[in-house]
């Protein structure tokens, strides 16, 4: 039942669970050496070259990457289009760069990518104030020999500080071969996984990391320029393993406002720690869940705790009804300090006061009792003294 399962959303327990599972996978994502990071004011300007297959998201990501460093680190980036293979490549970069207000270089007539790349890099290196030059390259459909040779030549000629391998989240295991092929042509030093906003979980990133011995630095999460997120291994792995986005879930929990200085969650956590998952704690949990927006969203972030049968509308309605019933209880009843009061006559009163059937009040109390039992099984949660006091 959803209520009992929601009760599993206890920070400590989830964190421990997540850490235990993530440790191994995280090692797979961490090649042990950090990637080059462009810095403000660097002379000569840092050169970052993007490689990857056509459609992987290079052009889009080049612009996002340049914009990200300008926005968050105050760098002065510029873009160079060394894709002379695909008709319209320069126009696409030009359009995106113009939208972002980032200077760009390219040619409609020059067909030699090495030439355009070198001219562009030289141009911006002499440009006062420019400290980051992002070079977009061509990427045909397969890692054909000509493309890889072109990648090698552009890299040799522009001597980039960093070569970024861009991969689509949906490519899966094929990422290994792709990344390896590019790595043989250019010194790949970082990976960016794009289209993480789609259905794919991006498991191929593990292969790309293994093939390039480079870390994942960013994730593309949409088609727009700001849709680039710094890579967080923990959250990536928990999503990959179907554990849900634990960090995201924790963050949400913490932003819930409360009448006192503590968040309902903190109060809840304390109550549970004391082995005291009272009805008031349950009410706080509902309150917390309701301020977090659609339950479905929350549910999708929770690690396998929610049954497939979960129904958003029913879940919400039920929580509302339960809260109404709890509002008809006295403080003593909610806090479980005056449990003796929760006898048949009190149950009848609560039912009358909230306009709900007696049966439902009893159900709620029983469900709460089951939750208390479940809570007590979570690690580091004390067993309540008496879970039977609530219904008698
Ligand atoms: P390139 O051929 O490697 O240069 O790839 P493009 O940058 O042209 O991107 C190919 C398509 O993928 C375009 O339609 C982009 O808008 C789209 N795209 C790129 N990154 C993302 C992303 O993170 N999310 C989504 N939804 N679409 C993306
Ligand atoms: Mg492109």
UniProtKB/TrEMBL annotation:
Q: Which residues form a coiled coil?
A: none
Q: Keyword DNA-binding: yes or no?
A: no
Q: Could you cite one Gene Ontology molecular function of this protein? A: 7S RNA binding
InterPro entries hit by this protein: P-loop_NTPase, Signal_recog_part_SRP54_M_sf, Signal_recog_particle_SRP54_M, SRP54, SRP54_GTPase_dom, SRP54_N_sf
List each copy of the SRP54-type proteins GTP-binding domain by range. Answer: 215-228
- Is RNA-binding among the key words of this record? yes
Q: Which GO terms describe its biological process?
A: SRP-dependent cotranslational protein targeting to membrane, translocation
Q: What reaction does this catalyse? A: GTP + H2O = GDP + phosphate + H(+)
Return the broad EC class. hydrolase
* Gene3D superfamilies documented for this protein: P-loop containing nucleotide triphosphate hydrolases, Signal recognition particle SRP54, nucleotide-binding domain, Signal recognition particle, SRP54 subunit, M-domain
UniProt-listed Enzyme Commission number(s): 3.6.5.4
Keyword annotations of the record:
GTP-binding, Hydrolase, Nucleotide-binding, Ribonucleoprotein, RNA-binding, Signal recognition particle
Give Gene Ontology CC terms: cytosol; signal recognition particle, endoplasmic reticulum targeting
Cited SUPFAM superfamilies? P-loop containing nucleoside triphosphate hydrolases, Signal peptide-binding domain
Family assignment from sequence similarity: Belongs to the GTP-binding SRP family. SRP54 subfamily.
Q: What is this protein called?
A: signal-recognition-particle GTPase
Organism this protein belongs to: Miscanthus lutarioriparius
């Amino acid at each position: 039942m959803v209520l009992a399962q929601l009760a599993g959303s206890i920070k400590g327990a989830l964190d421990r669970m997540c850490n235990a599972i993530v440790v191994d996978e995280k090692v797979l994502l961490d090649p042990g050496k950090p990637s080059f990071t462009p810095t403000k004011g660097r002379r000569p300007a840092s050169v970052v070259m993007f490689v990857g297959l056509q459609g992987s998201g290079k052009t889009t990501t080049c612009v996002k990457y340049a914009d990200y460093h300008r926005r968050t680190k105050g760098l002065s980036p510029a873009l160079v289009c060394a894709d002379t293979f695909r008709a319209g490549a320069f126009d696409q970069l030009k359009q995106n760069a113009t939208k972002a207000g980032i200077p760009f270089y390219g040619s409609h007539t020059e067909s030699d990518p090495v030439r355009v790349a070198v001219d562009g890099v030289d141009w911006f290196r002499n440009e006062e104030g420019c400290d980051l030059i992002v070079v977009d390259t061509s990427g045909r459909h397969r890692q054909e020999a000509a493309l890889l040779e072109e990648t090698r030549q552009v890299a040799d000629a522009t001597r980039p500080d960093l070569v970024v391998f861009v991969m689509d989240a949906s490519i899966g295991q094929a990422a290994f071969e792709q990344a390896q092929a590019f790595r043989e042509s250019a010194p790949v030093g970082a990976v960016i996984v794009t289209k993480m906003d789609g259905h794919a979980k991006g498991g191929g990133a593990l292969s790309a990391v293994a093939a390039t011995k480079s870390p994942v630095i960013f994730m593309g999460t949409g088609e727009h320029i700001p849709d680039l997120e710094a890579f967080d291994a923990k959250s990536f792995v928990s999503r990959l393993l179907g554990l849900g986005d634990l960090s995201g879930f924790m963050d949400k929990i913490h932003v819930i406002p409360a009448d006192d200085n503590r968040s309902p969650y903190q109060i809840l956590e304390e109550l549970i720690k004391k082995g005291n998952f009272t009805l008031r704690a349950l009410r706080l949990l509902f309150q917390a869940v309701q301020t977090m927006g659609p339950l479905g969203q929350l549910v999708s972030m929770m690690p396998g705790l929610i049954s497939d049968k979960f129904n958003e509308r029913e879940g919400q309605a039920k929580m509302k009804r339960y809260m109404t019933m709890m509002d008809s209880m006295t403080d003593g009843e909610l806090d479980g300090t005056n449990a003796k009061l929760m006898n048949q006559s009190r149950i009848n009163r609560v039912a009358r006061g909230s306009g709900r059937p007696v049966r439902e009040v009893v159900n709620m109390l029983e469900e709460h009792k089951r939750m208390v039992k479940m809570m007590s099984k979570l690690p580091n949660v004390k067993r309540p003294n008496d879970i039977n006091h609530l219904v008698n």
